[in-house]
Amino acid sequence: MHPFLDHPGPLAFAHRGGDLGRPENSLAAFEAAVALGYRYLETDVHATADGVLVAFHDSRLDRVTDRTGAVAELPWETVRQARIGGAEPVPLLEDLLGAFPGVRFNIDVKAAPAVGPLVEAIRRTDAWDRVCVGGFSDARLAAVRAAAGPRLATSLGPREVARLRLRSLAESFLPPFAARPLSRRPGAPFAGLCAQVPERHRGVRVVDRAFVRTAHRLGLQVHVWTVDDPTRIRALLDLGVDGIMADRIDVLRDVLGERGCWTDGSTGSSTVMGTP
User: Fold this and answer.
1) Closest C-alpha among 275, 261, 228 to residue 20
2) Is position 2 annotated as part of the catalytic site?
3) Cα(241)–Cα(119) distance, integer angstroms
4) Which of 2, 7, 57, 216 is catalytic?
5) I need a labelling partner for 175 at 20 to 30 A (CA). Which of 20, 63, 99, 199 fits?
6) pLDDT single digits (tens) 79-138
7) Alpha-carbon distances of 186 from 86, 89, 160, 179, 191, rounded to whole Å
8) What is the pLDDT of residues 42-77, one digit of tens each?
9) Dihedral sign, Cα of residue 163, residue 166, residue 172, residue 175
10) Is 15 a catalytic residue?
11) Active-site residue, from 7, 15, 46, 223
12) Residue 172, SS3?
């Protein structure tokens, strides 16, 4: 098992740092999640016009900051002046990796120009064992894998998820003994190590017992995003999913706690963010 996935019980992800009253993808949000005991933080990355990698979800600053403009078209010197929620600076990914050395990061690479800077940031911080990279583009994920090699954990791309879903539907007609567990090996049918998926996509169910069973048979973990309702969290855990991403990280922690599978990992420390 890759070290990123090696964890007792279900993985609990703080989606964009979680929603505890701090602005999303801000250092303050990540600090609050770590203080709550989270070992897994989810974030996103874009590269500025001059190649600086920032932890930021949108392609533009407009929605969550007091500035406007496309991140990819602005230099870091301009982006660094923006304030998330009018108060928090846009963090550098490398600063986050350095600020929380005891924490693992799930990173959604949002655009092709971010691929190179992302791999370099992981290399400079030697964060190979505590990063998993995902994305909504098979091409971007292929580029990440080509640049980083097998040391880096990645999730399945959209086409791989579709193949897994179709395979699970086909196998749902087979008796349980007919689909034997397979071990991960070079040349396995999927390049990623986990399927990170919504419970439903455009009204169509993605995650059910068959999907989880097929993924596990192929040596893949299943992580579901973004789930804040305690009833749905319990139902997904009953299906055997391996991880859940939530904004309401207090709710997720409480549900895991009531089941005796919450592991407090508040071991990270934060430092003042620097410059590239």
Assistant:
1) 228
2) no
3) 28
4) 57
5) 199
6) 999 999 999 999 999 999 999 999 999 999 999 999 999 999 999 999 999 999 999 999
7) 48, 42, 16, 20, 9
8) 999 999 999 999 999 999 999 999 999 999 999 999
9) negative
10) yes
11) 15
12) coil
